[in-house]
Design goal:
Length: 629
């Protein structure tokens, strides 16, 4: 169809009971996704079970319902998670981060260029979510050491990884799922570099926007020279009190002094002279010891007279704990003299991010390994724009939460290997298998090359790469399971049957005919743009993989109704599903940087809406020019 031609759509197909049932299940899924009453992977399983139970109307048998678990795309995504983990264990991304820091220095424009390049280009060959997780510490440190607000660099980190993921088939799980659906509906899966030309245009457009316009729109939510205590407004909640000689606390072991206080007060640290006293040593409290406690000043004042405690005159800062934790630029206020000499084993402050799929989600901190295994002191929690300081032990953790904790360096090293949290600072020694770096990179390049040349199917090549990672010692066998983001796997497996039900029951054809009504007023190119926008908005509710599964069948049906190129609509959905720049919840990488950047929900719309509009036009025009409409 020509760009300028306008075609009247065909008559709408009749609405059947089968369609109504599928619509009802879809609305249930949308409501659960939007309200987040249950995790997204559980929602997908609910959808899958509902489809099988209602088989007479959904046409989804038990075999079709569970087919998502054996689907090529699901297994390929699983394998790509493991390959990405192999690269991570060698420290390859961190090496790029160091080069990024040495190139950027304190120049904000060079910092931004480095972040966009280091996040974007590797995201074309590795899953972009782990890349962002690995780069958050390096970018946060780069910002603070270079005198730049972390807020200025973390949204660009996420956005660059999103547009970089569109460079190849394996850049994001969305592409792999879209390829599978395209193969099922059109008999045309994506090749490795099927849309690399368009992906390069999108990446360069996105990078140019971030460098020239986007960075001006990002507010500085975190001051460049602000330490973590100031950032989390802890001055009113951390107090230093001195134990009197006649205090009833004298003689108690340090591990039990918390029992002497109400639950709202927690002892963070015990200082004796210029040294920190560790509770594990069995030491007892002595007169003259200083306690750093987390509580409101008014609460401490009420206790001081009765407990044999006196409030110290000086404020508690990072210096009190042996130095700042958020990078070299986290200055001590007004050049205050450090009370405690910095010790090699002294505790430090750090932020922890709870990622999607973490086992901590839905649990209280005391129910997780934060308290049981790691023994960290939880000082504050950032949830969206809220900073929470009180009753932290009773809060239920959610994905995207950012925790301010006080922990020992060796504890941070163990937590850095825990997939349930992201330590938002770069650690000196992570035990990377640097000697395996060439092998790991070679394996990934081999997977890409074999799939691109058609020697092996991408699924076979990826699984072969996993085997090579294990046999080559890049990954231990017991690390394979921790490498997989199981919530994504269950999300894909649960929603793939819904896409099949859309096709089999004619629901996709009905919605496609409704969308095609716009053809009465718009040329095919305009309908394609409308479909791009609808998909991008859908992604904000049901996730990128979910929108691909739901929208591609509708796009193919729409194209058939108006006589357009169905593959163009497949590509529009694929690109739009990775273009949710307007919210922190529609794409995992946006959520990962939400807390560490100190962002507000509206910051994403402020920066992302213009980018989304620009890319909608660029992408649709690119599809029309390269594949035709």
């Amino acid at each position: 169809m020509s760009f300028g031609g306008v075609m009247m759509p065909a008559q709408l197909p009749p609405v059947t009971a089968d369609m109504l049932v599928v619509f009802a299940i879809t609305l249930l899924a949308f409501s659960l996704f939007a309200t987040e009453r249950v995790p997204v992977d559980v929602t997908a399983l609910i959808v899958m079970v509902a489809l099988m139970v209602l088989e007479p109307w959904t046409q989804i048998s038990v075999e079709a319902g569970v087919a998502g678990f054996s689907n090529d795309a699901t297994i390929t995504v699983l394998a790509m998670f493991i390959l990405s983990a192999g690269i991570s264990r060698t420290g390859a991304v961190q090496q790029l981060g160091k080069r990024m820091a040495s190139f950027a220095g304190s120049d904000e424009r060079r910092q931004l260029l480095s972040v966009v390049s280091v996040a974007g280009i590797p995201s074309g060959f590795l899953n972009n979510t782990p890349i962002v997780a690995m780069l958050i510490p390096a970018v946060s440190d780069l910002a603070r050491e270079g005198g730049t607000s972390p807020s200025k660099l973390l949204i660009p980190l996420s956005y660059a990884s999103m547009v970089g993921g569109m460079l190849t088939l394996i850049g994001t799980s969305t592409n792999l799922v879209a390829s599978d659906v395209s193969a099922r509906l059109l008999g045309r899966p994506f090749s490795m570099f099927e849309f690399t030309g368009l992906g390069a245009i999108v990446f360069l457009t996105g990078a140019g926007y971030l460098l020239l316009v986007g960075h001006r729109l990002i507010p500085e939510r975190i001051a460049p020279d602000e330490g973590l205590l100031a950032e989390y407004e802890m001055s009113e909640y951390l107090t230093e009190v001195v134990v009197a000689e006649d205090s009833p606390l004298v003689g108690r072991t340090i591990t039990t002094i918390d029992e002497a206080f109400p639950p709202e007060i927690a002892v963070v640290q015990v200082l004796r002279g210029n040294e920190e006293i560790e509770g594990s040593s069995g030491a007892t409290v002595e007169g003259g010891d200083a306690l750093i406690v987390r509580a409101g000043v008014e609460r401490i004042q009420r206790l001081a007279g009765t407990r044999g405690l006196s409030i110290a005159a000086t404020d508690v800062t990072e210096a009190t704990f042996g130095g700042p934790a958020s990078g070299a630029a986290a200055d001590v206020a007004d050049g205050e003299t450090e009370r405690v000499a910095t010790a090699r084993d002294s505790r430090t402050f750090v932020e922890l991010v709870i990622p999607t799929g973490s086992s901590f989600v839905g649990k209280r901190p005391v129910e997780t390994s934060l308290g049981r295994e790691y023994g960290v002191d939880l000082l504050s929690l950032r949830r969206g724009t809220e900073l929470l300081h009180r009753r932290l032990e009773g809060l239920v953790l959610d994905r995207g939460d950012t925790l301010l904790v006080h922990a020992a360096p060796e504890t941070l090293e163990r937590m850095a290997a825990d997939p349930n949290v992201i330590v938002a600072r770069e650690l000196a020694d992570r035990g990377y298998r640097t000697d395996k770096l060439p092998l790991a990179v070679g394996i990934v390049l081999g997977v890409v090359g074999l799939a691109a040349l058609g020697v092996l199917d991408i699924l076979v090549a990826a699984l072969g790469g996993v085997i090579a990672m294990v046999l080559g010692g890049v990954l231990d066998p017991d690390e394979l399971y921790d490498a997989v983001e199981w919530d994504v796997i269950f999300l894909l497996a649960g929603l793939i049957p819904l896409g099949i039900a859309f096709d089999r029951t004619g629901t996709a054809a009905l919605i496609g005919a409704l969308v095609a009504e716009t053809a009465a007023y718009l040329p095919a190119l305009g309908v394609l743009w409308v479909f791009y926008v609808i998909t991008a908005l859908t992604t904000a509710v049901v996730s990128n993989a979910g929108s691909v599964v739901l929208m591609i069948p509708i796009g193919v049906a729409t194209a058939g109704t108006i006589g357009a190129n169905p593959f163009a609509f497949v590509l529009a959905v694929t690109f739009a599903a990775s273009a949710d720049f307007m919210t922190p919840v529609g794409y995992q990488t946006n959520l990962l940087v939400y807390g560490p950047g100190g962002y507000r929900f509206t910051d994403y719309a402020r920066v992302g809406a213009p980018l989304q509009l620009v890319l909608s036009v660029v992408t649709v025009l690119g599809i029309a020019a390269l594949w035709g409409v």
